[in-house]
Design a protein that fits this description.
The chain is mainly α. Helix content is 49%, strand content 8%. The chain has helices spanning 2-19, 33-37, 43-46, 65-80, 82-105, 114-120, 140-145, 160-178, 181-190, 192-202, 214-231, 264-271, 275-281, 307-322, 335-341, 346-352; strands spanning 54-55, 58-59, 252-258, 262-263, 289-290, 293-299, 326-328, 366-368.
């Protein structure tokens, strides 16, 4: 009986609430301007493209369902990874002014600046499983073809200025060969031979109707989405202040010549900065030594003043201290023989001198044996 009575009471209360709802007044929270500005649009709103979209002055025909689907997919994936977009924006502020300057000098579309953004996220030490390295992700063979130095001491694929110059020459050649920059960046991704084969097999040179490898199909649309977002980041909820961005990369350039290998720490000491700073400003430097010949090194802005005198002093002190720790190669000597002379392993000698097992030495070369 008690359960039945309780059940009847609950039904009565429920009926009263339905017929006479209780009105609750809740104070609206105050939303300040900063919090409101950080609100991001819905993902659906973000892919309602309302303006004409162009890449390298080529209009993207989003009225075609297939093109629209491909663009929407890459846009949604890019916006989903918001931390990555924030890093894009920060690094773009640091490097885009230099990349744009080089593109302008080469009379190339500024939209090509998004290629290294997608290729490496503007990280100098980025590398792929296929052996591509640096900002523009050059393969070793292509880098050397476009006059980039790649050896045990220097890898210019990691130099923002030289790799961008090489990329400009390469993209110019690709555009000249295939007739459009959309096809040029496709060839940049999949290789010019691969694109040529597809064009010949399909009897078609229209980028939008070519069937290309899935990675390449996505690649160009990633470039387009990066452009759309970075040109109007606020629309997509990215409200970065100027102080949030990384400052433009500025530096002093030091040029000098050397007739022998030099330890990088001497440059750091002469500039009055840590070893790490020299490596960060010159990511193309490999190992701990600079090679012989003409050298061009970047150091922090303002550190060039007095550098020459400081370097001369540090070099003299270093030469006195280490002159007995070098071996000058004589005619007929081998790496194995030199290692045995100083009771050291061949592998250690190779490591000290940034050499491989196939390394070649010549009479007059100086090897570090400390």
């Amino acid at each position: 009986m008690r359960l039945k009575s309780l059940y009847t009471t609950v039904l009565l209360i429920t009926a009263l609430l339905i017929l006479h709802p209780i009105t609750c007044v809740v104070a609206e929270p105050l939303i300040n301007q900063n919090v409101q500005s950080d609100l991001q649009p819905s993902l659906i709103e973000s892919i309602r493209f309302k303006k004409t979209i162009k890449y390298c002055d080529i209009e993207i025909p989003i009225e075609h369902q297939d093109i629209k689907e491909r663009l929407e997919k890459e846009m949604l994936l890019a916006l989903w990874d918001r931390p990555q977009v924030i890093l894009w924006m920060k690094r773009a502020a640091k490097y885009f002014p230099h990349i744009e300057s080089i593109l302008k000098k080469n009379n190339l579309p500024l939209d090509l600046k998004y290629v290294p953004l997608i290729e490496s996220a503007l990280k100098p030490h980025a590398s792929s499983s296929k052996g591509a390295v640096g900002y523009w992700q050059f393969l070793k063979s292509t880098g050397k073809q476009y006059n980039l130095r790649i050896d045990s001491l220097i890898d210019e694929r990691r130099n923002i200025f030289k790799s961008t110059q090489a990329a400009c020459r390469y993209l110019k050649d690709l555009e000249k060969r295939f007739g459009s920059y959309l096809l040029a960046v496709s060839a940049y991704n999949m290789g010019e031979y691969g694109l040529k084969t597809e064009i010949e097999a399909q009897k078609n040179k229209d980028f939008f109707s070519l069937y290309l490898p899935l990675e390449t199909q996505r690649y160009t649309f990633k470039l387009i989405c990066a452009k759309i977002i970075l040109e109007s980041p606020e629309i997509y909820g990215f409200h970065l202040e100027p102080t949030d961005l990384y400052p433009v990369f500025i530096f002093d350039r030091i040029n000098f010549s050397s007739d022998s290998k030099l330890p990088i720490f001497l440059i750091a000491q002469a500039a009055g900065v840590p070893f790490k700073i020299i490596k960060d400003y010159n990511p193309e430097l490999r190992g701990y030594y600079l090679g012989k010949g003409r050298l061009s090194i970047l150091i922090p802005k303002g550190k060039a003043k007095g550098f020459k005198d400081s370097f001369t002093a540090h070099y003299k002190n270093w030469e006195k201290e280490y002159k007995l720790k070098f071996h000058v190669v004589k005619r007929g000597e081998s790496l194995t023989g030199i290692a045995n002379t100083y009771n050291m392993s061949l592998s250690f000698l190779l490591k000290l001198n940034n050499l491989s097992m196939k390394g070649i030495i010549h009479p007059g070369d100086r090897l570090v044996i400390e």
